[in-house]
Amino acid sequence: MGRRVKDDQKLHVYEWEEDLHDEVYEDASPPCLTISDCQWLVDRTCIQWGVLSPRVEDGRGRKTACSTPEKICLPRLYREPISIIHEACHSIQFHISGDDDAAHGSLFVRLCIENYTSHFNLVRRELEETARSFGLSIARSSCPRLPDRQILRLRRMTDKLLVHSSNIAHHRNLLKSEIKQRQESVERFRETVREIQVERYG
Ligand SMILES: [Zn+2]
Predict the structure, then answer these.
(1) Mean pLDDT of the chain
(2) CA 114 – ligand 1 centroid, Å
């Protein structure tokens, strides 16, 4: 992905994840999931963030994994949960902040922490502490500022809704005054009927 923002946390993220590897898999070698299991894990991770999940493809022949909003390529070595979730986080980040944040920046680390915590049943605070010990900065919230174009769109939508609601209020007032007028004319009619009755029958 062509990124505008400098990605200077990248190596520290890799080191932090290596440490996590040791903690999660201990001495055992990590599992090698099938492509469809990888896809399942990517779907499950992305769904929690309400974003479309990318297609997982066989990345054999590639040196490393790669990820775009549309697809994730996984060489065999990368078909274990930490790497898969890492790549899914790139995709999630793209959907929520476009190119506004560094690929392995503080928002990315926040997303990893949230997803690793829930997937491996870890303690969030401890994961944050280890991330910090590797010099990583972590976004406070996983809900970043929206890209400008999205804010503009939301504003336009809000404006439209405001116009709609003031139109509705206007029509409601018109209806109210019409109802009142009709009630008054019914009242006038009744009054006339009463007068005629009094006149005729006393
Ligand atoms: Zn990465």
Answers:
(1) 89
(2) 16
